[in-house]
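Handout, section B. The chain below has 164 residues.
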Amino acid sequence: MAVIEKGSFEVISRSPNQTRRIGMRLGELLHPGDVIGLEGNLGAGKTTLVQGVASGWGSYDSVSSPTYVLVNVYRRLDHNQLYHLDAFRLSSPEEAVDLDIDALLVQGPLLVEWADRIKDALPEGLLWINMRLINDEQRDFIVHARGDRHKDLLDQFREDIYGI
């Protein structure tokens, strides 16, 4: 078992509903310019977590994996937008650059599934969630941050989850 790096924390989810609730807590905290990178194998719960994030953020759109369209846009009543990028089909960070990630960040937060595939195209500051499938029901998430805004986000998220 690896030691969790300083400034990170671990979350264990024991069901898809719990994963969605964890995501809802994170979604309530997001602002335009926030980037959440999700890393994990198939079945690790990335899309399930995004469903919760979008709900907590206030989206009235249903969430699905954007594997074939690359980027889904979720809206809420105040006309803000949340972007959901699936990098699984991208073969390089250069392909992600063509999506003009910086322009998306001006308009809303960005969630990136398979973020490890395009790490070099993502901004320096972000919240990174490494997700791991333990068994059919249990998932393990290691959350860490880079950049002042995202370190504050990590601290708020940890406090919302654990009260510390």
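Note. The helical segments are 16-27, 46-57, 93-97, 101-107, 148-162. Compare this with the example in section A.
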